[in-house]
Specification:
The chain is mostly helical and 106 residues long. It has one domain. It has three helices and two strands; from the N terminus they run H-E-E-H-H. A two-stranded antiparallel sheet has the order 1-2.
């Protein structure tokens, strides 16, 4: 079985489930944001597959994309993702990354 890609996750959350933006809840999600760790902060291009996983995927609208990269946006994403997958799963995702700076969302 092949590993799930970022495109697969987006197709499921946005294409199949037709989710609303998980930040404003006012518009349909058309994009998939990195909820907790985004590419600009995890600059190991060869390791981006480590952050392109469901416990880091937040469906959003274009208007909320920039908000998703703020500390407040990441705190919001932490709460949503913990509701979806459980705090243990989301924390295990973060613990599995070699981050120089670790945010506290709890």
């Amino acid at each position: 079985m092949r590993k799930e890609t970022w495109i697969d996750i987006g197709a499921d959350l946005i294409g199949i489930q037709h989710m609303d933006c998980q930040y404003c809840f006012a518009r349909f999600a058309t994009e998939l944001a990195h909820g907790l760790v985004y590419k600009r902060n995890y600059n190991r291009r060869s390791s981006w597959k480590k952050i392109n996983v469901r416990p880091n995927a937040m469906p959003c609208c274009p208007g909320c994309q920039k908000f998703s990269e703020t500390y407040e946006g990441r705190k919001h994403a932490w709460n949503v993702l913990c509701d979806w997958y459980g705090e243990e799963v989301v924390q295990a995702f973060l613990d599995g990354l070699d981050l120089k700076i670790k945010d506290n969302y709890g």
